[in-house]
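Input.
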Amino acid sequence: MRRAVCPGSFDPIHNGHLEVIARAASLFDEVIVAVSTNYAKKYRFGLEERLDMARETLASLRGIVVEPVGQGLLADYCRQRGASAIVKGLRSSSDFDYELPMATMNRQLTGVETVFIPAEGHYLHLSSTLIKEVFTLGGDVSEFVPKSVLKRLRSGEPGPGHPA
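Output.
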């Protein structure tokens, strides 16, 4: 079985993420959408809510598993899960410059390869940070996020694990 890991904080998951994950699902037998938590970051949605949004959104895709990464190195997580590849979406050359050293380190640590999937042109501008900012300032983000995310954004309440 060809298994890949598509890691990210997904705060929130957006249509650019979905497009990359769907394309990865066509290349691998199984794609683990590995939701991470960086405790130095401030999240709008708690881990459980980010997992729920990803599961709801990706339920119709074949071969997708959504789970938390937990603590430790991504390369070790991939080895434990039997994944031969990490899938990363790229929006620009700055994404590539940021991701390349990590890809090289992951390969040297455990032999896991990184597969870069360039984002479709109409998603190049999307980031979770920009979506949250636009929404907070009153902009319409409905064409950029799945319905489960839009519902939670509109509820106006922070998710579990997020301070009010």
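Residues 157-164 have pLDDT under 50 and may be disordered.
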